[in-house]
From TrEMBL:
Annotated localization: Membrane
A Pfam family: Sdh_cyt
Species for this entry: Microbacterium panaciterrae
Alphabetical keyword list: Heme, Iron, Membrane, Metal-binding, Transmembrane, Transmembrane helix
Entry keyword annotation includes Membrane: yes
Protein known as: Succinate dehydrogenase
Keyword Cytoplasm: no
Transmembrane domains' residue ranges: 7-30, 50-67, 87-109
Chief site of localization: membrane
Length: 129
């Protein structure tokens, strides 16, 4: 088990570096840079499956990578077996919950959800009305 955790940390770390620098480059360097980051920018990115999967892959790898690192720290420094098992379960549940919620947000993102008639997005979400 520990061998696979160690291998995962190395492989996911390399993939995360590529994903994170790609994410930062597209969001901060291309176009107008940081000044273009707003709700419409995110809505435009999440309208394409490529960016949805890019961000979900980054989310999953980062959360599993972090949870695995925390599991390693707990295993190394918590002496009481019951407390150690409890903490590892809590870390796993927290990571699973965040993965579930994050994935749900990315794939169900609707920029027109909750737009009111007097809002700035009304004309974009309801053209011709």
């Amino acid at each position: 088990m520990e061998k696979w955790g160690w291998i995962y940390m190395r492989v996911s770390g390399v993939v995360l570096v590529v994903l994170i620098f790609g994410h930062l480059f597209v969001n901060l360097m291309l176009g107008e840079g940081i000044h273009a980051l707003d709700f419409a920018f995110v809505a435009g990115k999440y309208a394409t499956p490529f960016w949805q999967w890019w961000d979900v892959l980054m989310l999953w790898l980062a959360l599993i990578h972090g949870a695995n690192g925390m599991r390693t720290v707990v295993n190394d420094y918590v002496g009481h077996q019951g407390i150690r098992k409890t903490l590892v379960v809590v870390i796993g549940l927290a990571a699973a919950l965040l993965i579930l919620l994050g994935t749900l947000v990315v794939f169900t993102f609707d920029p027109c959800n909750g737009v009111f008639q007097d809002g700035a997005m009304w004309a974009t979400c309801h053209p011709g009305s």
